[in-house]
Amino acid sequence: MSFSDGHNTTSTSLPEEFAITNVTVIAGDEMTVRPHSTLFVSRGRVRSVDTQPPPTDMSSVDGSSLIAAPAFVNAHTHIGDIVGKEDGFGLDSWRVVMPPDGVKVTLLAEAEDASVIAAIRDAAHVMLASGTTTFADFRESGGHGLDLLERALDGLPLRSMAFGRHATHPPHTEDDLEANRGGLSPALVAEFEELIERVPGWSVPLAFDVTDEGLTHTARLVRQRGKLLATHCVETDRYRVISRQRFGESDVERVVRLLRPDHIVHMTNGTDEEFELVAKAGIPVVVAPRMQSVMGIGLPPIDRMVAAGVTVALGSDNGMLASPDLLREMEYVSRATRAARHDPSFPTPAELLKMATLNGAKALGLADELGSIEQGKRADIVLFDADSRNLRPVRNPLATVINRAVAADVRSVLVDGRLASGRLELASDRRASTATA
């Protein structure tokens, strides 16, 4: 992904170099709490986290009532269908999302462009206000869908990682699928060639709707261009059943063998053997627990994934049934997983925060740039108001962030060291910087 091509805010007056003093920092890849620290930001990156005060001539922010956490990475969305909030509520997943006549498919076919753009833009503001600065989207509607996303995000300081896909689905006829014959048609290849230059990645929505040759053909095309690749797997048992009927293997087995994606989405109904297979292949899994729960699919077995060695990241999935707010996602995962296990010890606050930050960056190939407050990484930072009525008194900063914090507790959000949402006051001259994008 080219960060220089992202959307930038023009609404902030923070200097290129500044320090946040006496702040509690959740620092490094291990999410270590470092109280009474000085967080130095220089030219959009984290320069250091230490205990030394800044030089007297450096602009600074008094962080004595702040908790600094890495900004969130929402590793999987279908953000366009947020235009139909709560459409499909109470229906099973197949009736909600599956082509050709699922509620979502019909919704997007009938929705006016202006309505989709407005809904995505509202969702973008929700993400920024709740601490997300980067999100991945499985983009529907081919090139037109990409146009809508770009128009919706124009001028906003939010990084989007759009995964392109074919405008029509499935790419093969039923006869070809049953015979497992044929790769991508010349028309599909031409569509791919047109779209792939506009996106950092490509998605295969349903592997059981693609032949073996189609999967290998797709993987070859994507890898030749150095792009990311992702797909959904075993969201329900029905995925596995269809895949075995058609190809003699589960969709997970085929994806690992033929597609080798950069990440897999869901695996809510995965087996321990499938988790071990994915872990051995080094493929992260992105889960969306609120979305899976509201459709009655079940709670993703994060504990079994982690036990198998899988890197687990969080996404919010379909906007029509789940808001793109990772604070809500973390709280839900924390409580529902402990309840399902009858065990209050898992996941730990640090493990869960990683799922919303560093692990999402890993799934998107961005871990060298994002996901933790680490020297040299981009200064994408969420500053929580530790003195808010909801949070004070803060006794365990990590647990507070994942267990109690809501968007209203976010004082400010930085993207590349620039103020993207909220408010910060420079102590040196008492100037207030406010993001108004």
Characterize the structure shown.
The chain has 437 residues and is α/β, with parallel strands linked by helices. The chain has two domains: 3-70 and 371-434, Urease, subunit C, domain 1, CATH 2.30.40.10; 72-363, TIM Barrel (Alpha-Beta Barrel). Helix content is 35%, strand content 24%. The protein is built from 16 helices and 18 strands. Strands 1, 2, 3, 4, 5, 15, 16, 17 and 18 form a nine-stranded mixed β-sheet that branches. A nine-stranded parallel β-sheet has the order 13-12-11-10-9-8-7-6-14. A hairpin with a 2-residue loop joins β16 and β17 (418-425). α7 crosses α9 (251-259), α13 packs across α14 and α14 (349-356) packs across α16 (397-403). The longest helix has 17 residues, at 113-129. The chain is globular. The protein starts with 16 loop residues before the first strand and ends with a strand. The relative contact order is 0.18. Residues 1-11 have low confidence and may be disordered.
Please outline the helices and strands.
Layout: E1 17-27, E2 32-42, E3 45-50, E4 59-62, E5 66-70, E6 72-78, H1 93-97, H2 103-110, H3 113-129, E7 132-138, H4 142-153, E8 159-164, H5 174-179, H6 186-196, E9 201-206, H7 212-224, E10 228-233, H8 237-247, H9 251-259, E11 263-266, H10 272-280, E12 285-287, H11 289-294, H12 302-308, E13 312-314, E14 317-318, H13 326-341, H14 349-356, H15 358-363, E15 381-385, H16 397-403, E16 410-415, E17 418-425, E18 432-434
Parallel strand pairs: 1-4, 1-5, 6-7, 6-14, 7-8, 8-9, 9-10, 10-11, 11-12, 12-13
Antiparallel strand pairs: 1-2, 2-3, 5-15, 15-16, 16-17, 17-18
